[in-house]
Amino acid sequence: xxxxxxxxxxxxxxxxxxxNYQGIKNPISGEFVNIRTMQSQLxxxxxxxxxxxxxxxxxxxxxxxGIKIVVLPGDFSDDGQPIHVKGLRRILDRYSKKYGMxxxxxxxxxxxxxxxxxxxxxxxxxxxxxxxxxxxxxxRNLKISEEEQLKPIITSGIKNWGYKGVLNExxxxxxxxxxxxxxxxxxxxxxxxxxxxxxxxxxxxALEKRVYPIQDNTSFLPDASYVVEPIEGVWLLAIDANxxxxxxxxxxxxNNPDDFSGASMGYNxxxxxxxxxxxWVKKVxxxxxxxxxxxxxxxxxxxxxxxxxxxxxxxxxxGSDKMQLHRVPNENVAKTFADAGIQIHFGGHMHINxxxxxxxxxxxxxxxxxxxxxxxxxxxxxxxxxxxxxxFEVETVVIDSVYSFxxxxxxxxxxxxxxxxxxxxxxxxxxxxxxxxxGAFTEWHLxxxxxxxxxxxxxxKTFTETILKSSGKDLLLMEQENVEKINKQxxxxxxxxxxxxxxxxxxxxxxxYRLRNADELAIVDIxxxxxxxxxxxxxKLSKSGNEIFVLWQSIFEKTVNGKPSNxxxxxxxxxxxxxxxx
Length: 582
Hints:
Elements: E1 2-3, E2 24-25, E3 32-33, H1 38-41, H2 51-64, E4 69-73, H3 82-99, E5 102-106, E6 121-126, E7 132-136, E8 153-154, H4 163-169, H5 171-175, E9 183-185, H6 198-204, E10 211-214, E11 219-222, E12 226-231, E13 234-239, H7 267-273, H8 276-290, E14 294-299, H9 311-318, H10 331-339, E15 344-347, E16 354-359, E17 365-370, E18 380-386, E19 391-398, H11 409-421, H12 438-458, H13 461-467, H14 472-476, H15 483-492, H16 505-518, H17 523-526, H18 528-542, H19 547-560, E20 567-571, E21 576-579
Parallel strand pairs: 1-4, 4-5, 7-8, 13-14, 14-15, 15-17
Antiparallel strand pairs: 1-18, 2-3, 6-7, 9-12, 10-11, 12-13, 16-17, 18-19, 19-20, 20-21
Helix pairs in contact: 9-19, 12-16, 18-19
């Protein structure tokens, strides 16, 4: 089966049914498209536009491999807008009909942004003349800030759907029972495996029955979790780990989306606000054992530290409110779900390629497999092959060659020209439009994201002011160690000082992000020699005794030496994980 996480699908060819607006015309193809600006893409952790083509390319690749089960671990949309969810459903229906694929989805924090529908606005669509085009679902609270701003487009297609709208549109993809499923249940079902009946399952599947209490049982929120048996002997456990915590002060209105937080925290909030899921997972895993089913769990959020166990050092280095460290699940999450019976779990949310392993005091082991995003570096999906009830193979497939990935580039040139003429600050690097393939395009995306957002926002100035513009040679000599001694060490490795003049501290930081995003997959792009040079320099800097350099060396070293994440096998009898070499 294939796992495609964080698609963040936006239908760039969508037509708004209630607005007289086609979008902007591509001067080369003549097509009208509704796309976001390049400026917005390069300050976001995800690509908004080109992933449309990457997604269909991945589905074509999956079809060629003959894979019939495709799992979507959340963020299949990019804020649950009706226009985009409908577009996604049409594509999934097409591949289901043409190739016999079955899709199984779970919700992410960008699908229902809030549990109930709400008005929304996107201010960064690309409009006429390279300007930003506002598209909103309502004129309410819409402010025009600039005289030359394009007139806003008003359409209900851009609102944020809640659970009801999203699940109704995506009903064919696991959220509700189907005749051809061998079994299907939710945490709220009232039937047994032996007494399973499609009609009864359909009745129990009504969304109003799939709710859990909050605020001392005075309110109820939906839970889209389910377990399904799509083929004999295999259970897919879809955990809806979205948790919308009520605000301290609420409006008193029924189903007011603004009374709740977003859901990006994931499992840390599940344990405190959605504990019924833990009890249900225990029941499901016990039934899987009883009836001889192989249980594969998936959800949007990671269950294990996704920073190669460097999170404690990263909190000291960056600060606990930086680098998305608030999203790292605490250790009790892995312990709770491992002891509840989860052994293999596929997650997303972080747009990274990673594997985390935890074994509890009771001897239960959880393998958490982080699926990369097709909308970020490195764009890839995972294939799970079940060899037996205890032996599993996981392969990561990179989608670097995408037809039409540069189709929108002429429009970005119009945007760049406008930004250049209006002397906008923080303008993006137009060299991204020289990318030769989609893989290179996502690499450029990460590089610009590092320059325009990550470094200014997350990195301590005491580090970057010293490091950023320094060459590798400068960094080697920073602590005034004996030059002759360093030279001898370099000779032993068949290096010289010139090798270290070809890169800067910015290159090292950017390659740290490549490793953090892609793990093993980034080594080909970085090169083993360069990676070893980074490690050599980090080791030298740590010898200074400067705490920030000591932390950096530890973070970098742990990031380089994570668990197998590219192509590997898992054995549940021995609780082992081993790489499969190409």
